[in-house]
């Protein structure tokens, strides 16, 4: 079966990790504990946390009771922010083909892909406080 929405494993881990952190705001979680909870590789999660930290979505707390915390309030972090921290800016495609083939008259599918893109983007505009 063809995937309509193709999200990388890194982005999937990032969204799950952000939601995990949102469940215990103010309480740091270690990479190992988060990896165990999410059933993912601690090494992969560590790289994801580094990207999220660079984007200001999480921040590291040093020390024996350290780990990661959300870097901003839940109401200020959108799912698209998390995705783009890992993937870079989202680029919406206007064509399902690798290169457009319909010509200047527009897509044979009409506005189907544009409507789907809008709906997907609308879902990723949700904030962690809404998930």
Give, in order, the helices and strands.
Answer: HHHEEHH
Rg result: 18 Å
Helical region count? 5
- Note the main sheet: 2 strands, antiparallel
Question: How confident overall, as mean pLDDT?
Answer: 89
SSE arrangement:
Elements: H1 9-23, H2 31-38, H3 42-54, E1 58-61, E2 67-70, H4 79-87, H5 112-124
Antiparallel strand pairs: 1-2
Q: What can you tell me about this protein's structure?
A:
- The protein has helices at residues 9-23, 31-38, 42-54, 79-87, 112-124, and strands at 58-61, 67-70.
- The chain is mainly α and 131 residues long.
- It has one domain (9-130): Arc Repressor Mutant, subunit A (Orthogonal Bundle), CATH 1.10.10.
- Strand 1 and strand 2 form a beta hairpin.
- Helix 1 (9-23) packs across helix 3, helix 1 (9-23) packs across helix 4 (79-87) and helix 2 (31-38) packs across helix 3 (42-54).
- The longest helix is centred in the first third of the chain and has 15 residues, at 9-23.
Please sum up the structure shown.
The protein is mostly helical and 131 residues long. The protein has helices spanning 9-23, 31-38, 42-54, 79-87, 112-124, and strands at residues 58-61, 67-70. The chain contains five helices and two strands; from the N terminus they run αααββαα.
Overview features:
single chain; 131 residues; mainly alpha; Arc Repressor Mutant, subunit A; two-stranded antiparallel ribbon; 5 helices; 2 strands; 6% strand
